[in-house]
Amino acid sequence: MFERFTKDARAVVTGAVEHAEGAGAQTVDAEHLLHALLDREASRASFALAVLGVGGREEAVRSVRRALDDARRRAGLSQAEAEALAGLGIDVSEIVARVEETHGVGAMSGDRKDKGWWSGRRSFSRGAKEVLEKSLRIAVAHRDRHIGDEHILLALTARPGVPAEVLADHGVTYEALTRVLYGGGEAKAG
Question: Clp R domain location, by residue (predicted)?
C-alpha cells in the first residue's frame, strides 16, 4: 500500500514516526499522524486545514497540539469518554492528578521518560493502521489514483477517537474537509 502514497503522505508517516520517537512512545499512534499533518506546509491537507482555520495559524495549531497532549495524559481517553466516566462518578482528572503526583507528569501516557530506550523500528498501533487503511478506502471512493496527506487527514476525522474529537472541536470534520477538498458532492467512503 505504501507505494501508492504521495510524497506528502509518506512525509506524514515518516513525521509520525519521528513524533513517536520524540515522545518516547512505544508505538506510532493516530495522534502522531495528526501531529505530523500539523507540521506539513504546501500540501493538500495543510491547505484544507488553513481553509478551516487551523493550518498556518500558530495559535490554532498550538491549541490542537495541547488538546492532543491533554488526551495523551489521560491515557488516550477522549473528552467524551472522560465525560461518560464522570457520569458514573469517576473523575478522570482527579485520577490523572493522583497518578502524576506519585509518578510524574505524563505517567499515564505510556511514554517512556528515558527516550533512548528503543533502537529498532516502531510499530504502528491498531488505530494508526486503521487510519492508513481508511485513507486508502477514502482515496478509492473519491477515485483518486494515489493516497495523499489529505486522505490521511480525512481518515483521522472519519474514525472515532481523540484525533477526530480534537479536530471537530476546532471545526475540522469529515464533511467540512470533503467540501473543501472535493466541493459539494461527496463520495461515500467504506
Answer: 2-190
Instruction: Give the tens place of pLDDT for each residue, 38-76.
Output: 999 999 999 999 999 997 678 899 999 999 988 887 777
Beta bridge partners of 123: 27
Percentage of residues in the chain having pLDDT higher than 70: 84
Q: Which residues contact 51 (CB under 8 A, 6 or more apart)?
A: 180
What does R_g of the chain's alpha carbons equal in angstroms?
17
> Domain coordinates of the chain in residue numbers?
2-75+124-182
pTM, two decimals, is 0.81
Q: What are the backbone angles phi and psi of residue 116, rounded to the nearest 5°?
A: -90, 15
Q: Residue 169: which of 74, 97, 25, 71 has the closest Cα?
A: 71
Whether residue 37 contacts residue 12, with contact meaning beta carbons closer than 8 Å, is answered with yes
Name the superfamily (CATH) of residues 2-75+124-182: Clp, N-terminal domain (1.10.1780.10)
Q: Which residues pair with 28 in a beta bridge?
A: 124
Longest dimension (CA), the chain: 52
At 3-12, the pLDDT tens digits run 899 999 999 9
- At residue 146 the predicted structure's pLDDT band, cuts being 50, 70 and 90, is very high
